[in-house]
Amino acid sequence: MSKHFAVFGHPVAHSLSPKIHAAFGRQTGIPVDYRAIDAEPGQFTHALSDFIAMGGVGANVTLPLKQVAFTLCDDLTERARRAGAVNTLVRNGDTWHGDNTDGAGLVRDLTDRHALDLRSRRTLLLGAGGGARGVAPALLDAGIGDLYIVNRTAQRSDALADALGEPGRVHPRYLNDLLSLGEFDLIVNATSAARDGQMPQLPRSIVGPRCAAVDLNYGEAAIPFLAWARAAGCRDVVDGLGMLVEQAAESFARWHGVRPETDAVYEMLRSHHDALVTA
Ligand code: NDP
Q1: Which of 197, 131, 130, 136 is nearest to 161 (CA)?
Q2: Which terminus of the chain is more solvent-facing, meaning fewer CB atoms within 10 Å of its CB: N or C?
Q3: pLDDT tens-digit profile of 16-32?
Q4: What is the pTM of this model?
């Protein structure tokens, strides 16, 4: 049976992952059958069983399924365990091995492509869903300073801070605390608010003199936050397109044993998804 790969999410029709993995396949000469499969959280286990039956051996998982995927794995990489969320599934015999490549993808994009030095940056992470869970451990490992996690639902920021386990460095806070939190050197938007045409209310007082703003979203969904960041004085402004390509490259390497080159794929996508990126 030929090997199949997929990205699971809800909604998922907009996903660029099939295009990215097809491009990596052409570049490396590896035949890639990678499709997008829509599954709501309640249907995910069933959809995965169908996928296995048709030869599925590897998958990406996107919103809102990353925390559900974590619970379905038989074993995990250390970075997936720390994140409490899985974006990459690898079929290993009769079991699922879970990894999380989001954080490595973000850090590689920011440091290598955009030449941002993350060390000691006082950081605000907006959101505590699957994406925030993936990037928080990698940002800490990259040497940021204190990390403030602010989420609309306070229990989720508390739970993420607990999972990260660095109480002196990681601080869960409420959205309405923002005015009292002072200035940041890095603000990361990991909310999906823009998908509903919304954006968290953010005061300008959170932007410090060397502040970089990063949105995990890309395309239209990145515009509200990045436009706010630019108007509020952020020096560097980066969307999530490069992270998307880098996390995909990490997943591709897990499945096929070859790490593809990412710049050409990034440039190809960038030409269709121009944004407000300035770093
Ligand atoms: P989840 O559904 O797991 O989490 C969504 C998060 O957004 C939660 O923290 C939620 O808060 C918050 N949120 C949603 N609506 C609002 C709102 N109106 N105001 C304030 N907060 C809100 O999604 P993910 O974490 O997986 O993804 C988040 C975004 O990041 C998505 O748009 C996704 O596309 C993007 N992403 C991009 C990646 C890339 O490679 N570029 C990788 C991963 C994610 P609450 O807990 O209160 O519901």
Answers
A1: 136
A2: N
A3: 999 999 999 999 999 99
A4: 0.96
Distance CA 108, CA 142 (A): 10
Taking CA atoms only, the protein residue closest to ligand 1 atom 11 is: 152
CATH topology match: 4-101+245-270 vs 103-241: yes
Shortest-distance Cα residue to atom 43 of ligand 1: 131
Class of domain 4-101+245-270: alpha beta
Q: Cis bond leading into 11, ω under 30°?
A: yes
Fold adopted by 103-241: Rossmann fold (3.40.50)
Provide CB contacts within 8 A for 82, sequence distance 6+. Answer: 137, 163, 164
Mean pLDDT by 10 residues, the chain (279 residues): 90 96 97 97 97 97 96 97 96 97 98 98 97 97 98 96 95 94 98 91 97 96 96 96 98 98 96 70
Domain ranges of the chain: 4-101+245-270, 103-241
Contact 221, 197 (CB under 8 A): no
Which residue numbers are catalytic?
66
Please give the DSSP secondary-structure letter assigned to residue 17: H
